[in-house]
Amino acid sequence: MPPRHVVLVFIDGLRPDVLAEAVRAGEVPHLQRLLGEEGNHGWVTSVLAPAPSITFASQASLVTGAHPNRHDVPGNQFFDRFGMHHGGKARHYAFDVGDTLEIDDAIAVFTQGLASRCLGARTLYERAGSRGQRSVVVGHMYANGADRWLPPKVDMLARLTRVPGPLRVTPAAFDRHVLDMALEDLCAHGLPDILTVYFMGLDAYSHAHGPEGQRAYLRETLDALVGELRAAVDELAPRGHPPFWMLAADHGQRAVPDDDAHAVSLRSVVPLFAAEGRDLLDYPGEGRHSDAVMAFNGSMAFVYLRRQGEAWAQPPDFQREVLPLARRFWEAHRSGAGAPALEGAVAAVLVRDVAHAGWRSGYVALTPDGGLETLEAWFRRLPAHDHVEALPRLAGMTSPLSGDMVVLLSPGSGRYFGHPVKGLHGGLSPEVSEAALMLAWPGVTPAAWQQARQQFEHAVNVRCETEGGRRPQTADVLVGLEAVMLG
């Protein structure tokens, strides 16, 4: 019999090795009780983030079961040259504020559902609603179809991410705020069929202190919060029908130097664009008037070019506009010309000719000597430990929203796009790509648990096989979960 109630706990940025080691060491008693003795009603595993391994893209995959090229949120930052969600007017999105200081975007995610409005795929909540199931979403950026959406308070969000000094809110206090909202809603309305609770504190803590701090945060903060949530859920669950639990992360993190020498700012790449006569978007609201956009997503950036003298919806000329700018990134890599911050830092420059092959055409790699070769050939050149499943993940990213060019920085260089941090993600390396996943169904028979796990794994494996035999990704988690929910 499928579960009547499902509890989803999304933990931003949790690395699977951190979760597994904490469980093995007995440091997270509440999570261990969910899993059972020797995991007799739970399972700890991992999945891959999409490309880029960034929050808004991967969280969208978790709640829709779609790859970014189908759910229409390719990153924390991206440019919609067609104005799909903006009345036909081109618009730059920076859900994480970014170097263009799109503060209004970051606020609108939780006050106006800005990220939710960009979704081009149905959510779990919409599909469940068509089956008569009720959903409540707490703290998360996506809630289309939910009966109730409880976003974090804007002042708490601002104090977590932007306010310095004594007014700043700690990641632990922010996660406490999210849990309190969930507990209050449970007390007032009872247990919904689907409850989603999103904790972003661990990711914020890792950015500030490095991923080596994740285990302590999991042990000292998140384990107790999950324990409180479980106690409240168990009290409300109908007797004989224990809820099914899923804890899922969206990506991992790796340690990077937190200094200006390694953080590649938008201003530092402006000369590359200026050398081609391009005005790069570098302040809020300029998107319709500039003719170039570079959207930062950790170790990866999308570049969008406006065809000279034409509207944004027109594709740029590949030979005269895309390739000359792309070559400048390799020149900067070789000598620092035009952008010293990129010297020795570029791992790949991917380009595509949308004017010839269409807006969903795939990328090829521009080589340092100016040639073009397949992605498969290019990634064979790179150190194997610098990327994992690059081809299927890039294919799942490629869409009209993913840019005319993609620039990928080398993990070994320690460089990254954005402001200085100690923990980073967004690229294709294993550390940033592997995301923790935990399933648990405490209170059911061993046979019921084994059946649920088999249903989950079978559904995920079938999908992966139909898509070329790739590894499971965050987009597959919902496929497995719905197999369990539908029995």
Could you write a compact summary of the structure shown?
The protein is α/β, with parallel strands linked by helices and 487 residues long. It is 40% helix and 17% strand.
Per DSSP, what share of the residues sits in E-state strands of 2 or more residues?
A: 15-25%
Per CATH, what is the topology of the largest domain? Alkaline Phosphatase, subunit A
User: What is the count of structural domains?
Assistant: 2
What is the CATH superfamily of the largest domain? Alkaline Phosphatase, subunit A
The CATH top-level class label of the largest domain: Alpha Beta
Number of strands: 19
CATH architecture of the largest domain: 3-Layer(aba) Sandwich
In the sheet with the most strands, the strands line up as 2-19-8-1-7-5-6
Computed over alpha carbons, the radius of gyration is 22 Å
Give the CA-based shape.
globular
Largest sheet: 7 strands, mixed
How many DSSP helices?
Answer: 19
Give the overall average pLDDT: 96
Q: Estimate the helix proportion, in percent.
A: 25-40%
**Which regions contain 5 or more consecutive residues with pLDDT less than 50?**
none
